[in-house]
Amino acid sequence: MKKILLLVGVVSLATVAAWGQSAPIKRLDGSTISQEQVDKTVSEAMSGAQVPGVALAILNQGRAVYLKGYGLRDKEKNLPMTANTVMSAASLSKVAFAYLVLELVDEGLLDLDKPVYQYLAKPLPEYPNYADLADDARYQRITARMLLTHTSGFANWRSMEADHRLKIHFDPGSRFAYSGEGIDLLQLVVETITKQPLEDLMQKNVFQPLGMTRTSMVWHAEFENDYANGYDENGKSLGPQKRQKADAAGSMQTTVSDFAKFMRAVAAGQRLKKETRAEMLRAQIQIKSKHEFPTLEEETTEQNQSIRLSYGLGWGLYWTSFGEAFFKEGHDDGWRNYAVGFDRGWSGLVIMTNSSNGEGIYQQLLEGVLANSLTPLEWEGFRRGPAKEHKQVSLSVAVLNRYAGRYGEAPNLIMTIRREGDHLAGQSGNGPAVELFAESEKQFFTKSGDAVLTFEVDGRGRATGMVLHADGKDMPIRRID
C-alpha cells in the first residue's frame, strides 16, 4: 500500500510558476538539465527514500526558474503537494530571523559586537529562562554576532542536557556549536529593543516587503486551503505544525515559492546595506568539528579544510570552484528542508519535504539537479548510501526484563519499555509501539528506522536510564520507575 501511495503521489505533480516554465535550467558546471530530467531525478529519489511530498525551487541568476510540488501533501486525503503548499520551515526560520537582525543593525538599533545583556531591562539571570546562568559571568560576553554564528557556548537545546539546565560549555566566541538556545536569546533581545512581538517584526520587515504572502512565524487561518502534513520515518502522519507562539529558531511556516523569494533577496542583498550583506556571507568562524550534531562533540577533523567550511551570520558557508556557497538546513519531526545558494551566477536549490526521511534525497538532488558534489554531507549528518546494518543477538528473558519500565521527565517525553517475547518494545505516550532488537547486551535498534537505544546500568545491574541516538543527536533519558 505504501508503494502505491508513493507512486500515485509522484505522478501527481503540481504547478510550475508560469514565468519560469520555459527558462533553461542551468547547472553549476555550465551544463543544462531539462524539466523532464529534473522530474525523473526527484521522483526516483522520493521513491527510494519513501518521502511522500517534496517542494522544489531551482534558482538561476538569483531568480526561481523552476518551482514545483511533487507527491502528496496529505496521503490520507490524496492531496497533491504544490509550490504554494504551506510547510514547516523548521530551522530555515533562523536565516529569515537573521535577516531581520541585520536590518536592525543597519537601522542602528543593534550592534553586533555589544554584549546582548546590555540591551535588556534587567540582568539576564533575572529572566526565568536564564536563571541557570547566574553563577557564570561569561554570559556578559555574549554578543549578537556570537548568537548568529552559533559560538555562544550553549548546547542546541537545554532539554538535551542531562539535567535540562542551560549551560555555557566553552568561552563564547571560541568555537562553533549549533544552538537554537542562542537564537531564542537573540529573539528576547530583539523584542526588547523594538518593543514589538517577533511575528509583527517579521511581517513588517521581511515577509511583506519580499512578497512572501504565505509565510508567517505562527499559523494563519488562510493557510488552511493548502498545507502539508508531516510524516515520520514509518509514514505515520504527524499532522501540520500549527504553532501559536513565534519562535525565531524554528516556528516559521512557508512555501517553497516564498522561500525562493527570500533566497532571491539574499542574492541581491535587498533591504540591506552593501557592507552588511557582505558581512552576512563573510566567514566569521572556521568549523573544525567532525560533525554538526551532536553540537558539543569534541572530535575535530581536517577533512573540510579544502572547502573552508565556516559560518557566517546565520548561514553556513563553504568554497568551491563554482564560487562561495551559503546553506541552511531545516530539521524537525516530519520535516526536512535544505537551501543552498552560490555567489557566482546566483544558482541555488531549495528542497522542502514533509517527511523525516527527507534527508535521504538531498545528495541525489544536489548532485543530479544542481551538479553540486561538494556539499559537506558527512559533517551535516546527511546519509550517504544505505543505513547502517545491525546484527541481532539473543538476550535472556532476565536481561530483557531489567530494562522494562518508564523513562523520561513528566509531563514531557515519557517512554514506556516492555518485553515482548525475545525483544523489547518502546512506546511514547499514545503513539505506536516500536519494536527494539538487541545488538549487544545494552544496545538496541529498530528495523523501521535509524534510531538506536543504549541502556545505562548501575553496579547492581539495574537500568538507570538510556541514551536515544537518532538524527545525529544523543538524548539522555533517565528512568522514572
How would you describe this protein?
By secondary structure, this protein is α+β, with helices and mostly antiparallel strands. The chain has two domains: 2-97 and 196-380, DD-peptidase/beta-lactamase superfamily (Beta-lactamase), CATH 3.40.710.10; 397-478, Lipocalin. The chain has eleven helices and 23 strands. The strands form five sheets. A nine-stranded antiparallel beta sheet has the order 5-4-3-15-14-13-12-11-10, with helices on both faces. Strands 16-17-18-19-20-21-22-23 form an eight-stranded antiparallel beta sheet. A hairpin with a 5-residue loop joins strand 1 (25-26) and strand 2 (32-33). Helix 3 (92-106) packs across helix 6. The radius of gyration is 23 Å and the shape is globular.
